[in-house]
C-alpha cells in the first residue's frame, strides 16, 4: 500500500530532479550564474549565453534525463522479468548489438542520424535474435532467455574487439567514447518523451502484476496472472527502452543496475512507487554525472559512462553490504 513516506520520497526526488537540471545548466566551460540562466530562459539577451544555454546545455540536459529515465525503468523491468538482482538493461546483449551497428557506421565514416540509425538497427536485431533463440520451439523460460542473452552478448563483444583492432587510430577514439557513453552529440525529440511517458503509464497499469511476479511465478499464476503474456510485454518493453537509450548516449553503465536497488533500499518496493521514482532518480543521476563529465577537466570532457562507473561501483558495494547485513 502506498503510504505517506512514499509520497514524501516522490516529492524529494522531484526536488532533486529540479536541482540536478539547474546544476547541469550552470555547469560547463562557460560560466553562467543562476541569475543569467533564469534571465536567458525567460528573456533572451546575450547572444553567446543564449546560444550556450539553448543550443548546448538544455538539449544535453534533456537527453541525459530522458536516457537515465529509460535505463532506470528498463532495469526495474529486467530485474522483475529475470528475477535476478544483478540484471541490468544490457544483460541480454542489446547494447552489444547497438555497439556493433554504431562502430560499423563509424568505421564507414558515417555520423549523425546514420550513426543513430545503425545503432538502433543493431539493437533491434539483437532483440529479435535473443528472443528467437530463447523461444525456439516455444520453450520459453527465464533461464533460457538469460543464458541466450549472455552468449549473444559475448558474441557481440568478440565482434566489437575485431572492429576496434582493425580500425584506424582516428576512428578508435570515437569508438571508445561511444562504448563508454557520450552525450556530447545527443539529441532527443518528442518521440523519446512519448516513449518514456508510455513506459511510465504502462508500468503503472501493470504495477500490481509486477508486484505479484516479483514474488514468484507460482504465486503469480495462482493469482490469475497470464505469465507468458506478461513476459513478452516486459521483454519487448525493456528492450525498446534500452535500445532507444543506447542510441542516444551509447553504453552508459550502472544506471539500470544501481537505481532500482537504491530505491528499494529506501523503501520503494511497490512498483506503483518504484517506477516513477526510478525515472526521477535515474534521470537526475545521469544529468549530474554528465554535468561532472563536462566540467571536471573542462574544456576537455570525460565519457559520461566513466563518471557513472566511478559513482556506481562504490554505491553498489554499499547497497550490497546493507542488504547482506539485513
Structure description:
This protein is mostly helical and 326 residues long. The protein has one domain (4-325): ABC transporter involved in vitamin B12 uptake, BtuC (Orthogonal Bundle). The protein has helices spanning 4-26, 34-42, 47-82, 94-107, 113-134, 142-165, 169-180, 190-205, 207-213, 217-222, 227-249, 255-265, 271-293, 304-325. 44% of the residues are buried. The model has no long low-confidence stretch (mean pLDDT 88).
Low-confidence stretches: none
Largest sheet: none
Distance, first to last CA = 22 Å
Task: Give the SSE order as H and E letters.
Answer: HHHHHHHHHHHHHH
Q: Per CATH, which architecture?
A: Orthogonal Bundle
Mean of pLDDT: 88
Name given to the CATH homologous superfamily: ABC transporter involved in vitamin B12 uptake, BtuC
Q: Can you tell me the CATH topology? A: ABC transporter involved in vitamin B12 uptake, BtuC
Give the count of helical stretches: 14
Amino acid at each position: 500500500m502506498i503510504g505517506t513516506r512514499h509520497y514524501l520520497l516522490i516529492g524529494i526526488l522531484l526536488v532533486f530532479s529540479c536541482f540536478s537540471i539547474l546544476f547541469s545548466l550552470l555547469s560547463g566551460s562557460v560560466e553562467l550564474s543562476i541569475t543569467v540562466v533564469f534571465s536567458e530562459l525567460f528573456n533572451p539577451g546575450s547572444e553567446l549565453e543564449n546560444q550556450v544555454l539553448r543550443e548546448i546545455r538544455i538539449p544535453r540536459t534533456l537527453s541525459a534525463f530522458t536516457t537515465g529515465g529509460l535505463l532506470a525503468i528498463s532495469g526495474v523491468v529486467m530485474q522483475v522479468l529475470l528475477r535476478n538482482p544483478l540484471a541490468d538493461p544490457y544483460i541480454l546483449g542489446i547494447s552489444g548489438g547497438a555497439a556493433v551497428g554504431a562502430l560499423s557506421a563509424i568505421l564507414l565514416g558515417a555520423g549523425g542520424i546514420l550513426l543513430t540509425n545503425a545503432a538502433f538497427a543493431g539493437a533491434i536485431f539483437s532483440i529479435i535474435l535473443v528472443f528467437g533463440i530463447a523461444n525456439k520451439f516455444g520453450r520459453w523460460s527465464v533461464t533460457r532467455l538469460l543464458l541466450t542473452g549472455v552468449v549473444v552478448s559475448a558474441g557481440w563483444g568478440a565482434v566489437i574487439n575485431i572492429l576496434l583492432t582493425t580500425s584506424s587510430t582516428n576512428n578508435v577514439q570515437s569508438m571508445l567514447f561511444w562504448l563508454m557513453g557520450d552525450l556530447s552529440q545527443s539529441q532527443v525529440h518528442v518521440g523519446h518523451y512519448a516513449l518514456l511517458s508510455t513506459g511510465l503509464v504502462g508500468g503503472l497499469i501493470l504495477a500490481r502484476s509486477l508486484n505479484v511476479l516479483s514474488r514468484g511465478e507460482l504465486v503469480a499464476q495462482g493469482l490469475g496472472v497470464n505469465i507468458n503474456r506478461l513476459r513478452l510485454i516486459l521483454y519487448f518493453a525493456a528492450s525498446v527502452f534500452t535500445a532507444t537509450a543506447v542510441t542516444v548516449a551509447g553504453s552508459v553503465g550502472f544506471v539500470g543496475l544501481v537505481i532500482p536497488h537504491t530505491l528499494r533500499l529506501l523503501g520503494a518496493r511497490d512498483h506503483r512507487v518504484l517506477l516513477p521514482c526510478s525515472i526521477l532518480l535515474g534521470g537526475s543521476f545521469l544529468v549530474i554525472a554528465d554535468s561532472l563529465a563536462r566540467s571536471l577537466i573542462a574544456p576537455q570532457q570525460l565519457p559520461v559512462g566513466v563518471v557513472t562507473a566511478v559513482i556506481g561501483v562504490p554505491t553498489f558495494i554499499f547497497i550490497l553490504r546493507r542488504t547482506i547485513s539485513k
